[in-house]
Amino acid sequence: MGVCGVISLSQLLSSVLAGAVLSVLLNLIRVLRSVSPHSGDVIRVGPWHARLSDGGPRMTAYQRALVAVTGLWAMRSSEAVYFTSLHDSRGERLRAGRSYLISGRNMPARWWSLTVYRNFQFIPNPWRRYSRSSTNLKFEADGTWKLWLTPHEATGNWMPIGADDGLLAISLRLYNPDDVVRSNAQSLEFPRIEVAPAAAITDASCIAGGDNA
Amino acid sequence: MPDTAWGWIAWSLGAVACAAVWNYSSLWIVVQFLSRRALARHVRLAGGVNRIHVHGLNTAENCRTPMSIADAVIAFCVYDLRSGPLLLDLAIPQGRYWSVTVYRVDTTNVFSINDQQLATKLEGRPVERIRMLLAKSAATTVFAADSADITVLSGDRRGIVLIRSLVSDPENEVEAAAVAAQLATSRATLPSATL
User: Fold this and answer.
1) Could you tell me if A136 and A157 are in contact, meaning their C-beta atoms sit under 8 angstroms apart?
2) Inter-chain contact A136–B97, Cβ cutoff 8 Å?
3) What angle do CA A159, A165, A171 make, to 5 degrees?
4) A69 vs B34: CB contact, 8 Å cut-off?
5) Residues of A in contact with B26 (CB under 8 A)
6) ipTM given for this complex
């Protein structure tokens, strides 16, 4: 006698198992979609991407799980927008032990910062330096700024990137962003992330920020 | 495997239904597990629930929350409203960004306000402190609502209140200590007269 006279117990169990496999495939598709250029509420500008629904009441179950893993207790996009980059501006993965130059202009927000993470955590360093922000970056006379990410100590605008392997990410936080950030971010000039030229790395005076030139 | 058409239909419908159940329950479990684990860690840091704890600046040594902010002095209160609403008397350091955000245990952000929005809301009042009543529902706020500037209905018994106050340079220990000292004057109390 089958279950409900239609299928047997073993067939029911295989159906449950198939459902589990289908569920895993569905989440895999979601993950792949979330990193594609055409994901729903994801803003993409160069190597930077942000989700507008992070922290808000419109989050789907999947988005809520993603935020719980990668950014627990994020604020709503009206209060803060979190851009993340795992790549440099050429599209290559950020790598430990390398030096990078991030350059840009002031961002349209009340306050903004750049923070480097390895495996979603701060990179331990003797200086406890994990970020630079609009309030402590040294700006050039033309309103631009340069920020060096190096595996060794430097001076001026710099942050340690460490030498240990891991998933490196740079977070660009914008607090109280102007409306254009959410409505038309592609019209804005976002920071560029470039592998630092070797000559600049070996010459300490070049690594130093604007006030040490 | 089924050997009739109806068997295949039943098998397929069962697989789809199970996929939906597996899918949403696994996502729900992930959120609940991570949130409750983080809340438990914060309760240990604060020495209990319904207490405001000034955590200070996040560092690689003291913070395990993924992709947390490095430029803010953080204070928090893990709330449990089983005994009634919670009255939060919050200090607001001047001349910098400050915000208070309320989350439920399922990570839903139910309320957020910053220093500039507060100044607009309480026009004419100097905004150096704010009294916020946190309750699960409106029914529990009858006797306590008039003692607060703002009433927040969380819709859930448990969650966390996060207070963020930015510093201009996290390596300036004097500035961070001054902000932390101001936040430390914040208090959480259970109103004496509740429904």
Assistant:
1) no
2) no
3) 45
4) yes
5) 23, 27
6) 0.84
CB-nearest partner of A15 from B18, B23, B66: B18
Collapsed DSSP state (helix, strand, coil) of residue A61 = helix
pLDDT per residue as tens digits for the range B6-33 = 888 888 888 888 888 888 888 888 889 9
B31 part of contact set with chain A, CB < 8 Å: yes
Chain B residues within 8 A of A67 when measuring between CB atoms: 107
Q: Which chain B residues contact residue A74 at CB under 8 A?
A: 109
Segment (H or E) for A109: strand A109-118
What's the CA gap between A156 and A206, in Å, rounded? 10
| Cα A132 to Cα A153: distance, rounded to the nearest angstrom | 15
Helix H, strand E, coil C: the string for chain B is CCCCHHHHHHHHHHHHHHHHHHHHHHHHHHHHHHHHHHHHHHHHHHCCCCCCEEEEECCCCCCCCCCCCCCEEEEEEEEEHHHCCEEEEEECCCCCCEEEEEEECCCCEEEEEEHHHHHHHCCCCCCCEEEEEEECCHHHCCCCHHHCCEEEECCCCEEEEEEEEECCCCCCHHHHHHHHHHHCCCEEECCCCCC
CB pair distance less than 8 Å for B67 and A70: yes
Residues of B (131-160) whose Cβ lies below 8 Å from A: 160
Nearest to B70 by CA among B82, B81, B58, B88: B58
Q: How far apart are CA A194 and CA B38, in angstroms?
A: 36
pTM score: 0.83
Q: Per-residue pLDDT for chain A (213 aa), expressed as one digit of tens each?
A: 455 566 678 877 887 888 888 887 877 777 666 555 445 578 899 999 998 766 666 777 777 887 777 778 888 888 999 999 999 999 999 988 889 999 999 999 999 999 999 998 999 999 999 999 999 999 999 999 999 999 888 888 999 988 888 889 999 999 999 999 998 999 999 999 999 876 555 443 333 333 333
Residue A9, classed as helix, strand or coil, is helix
Q: Check CB contact of B175 with chain A, cutoff 8 Å.
A: no
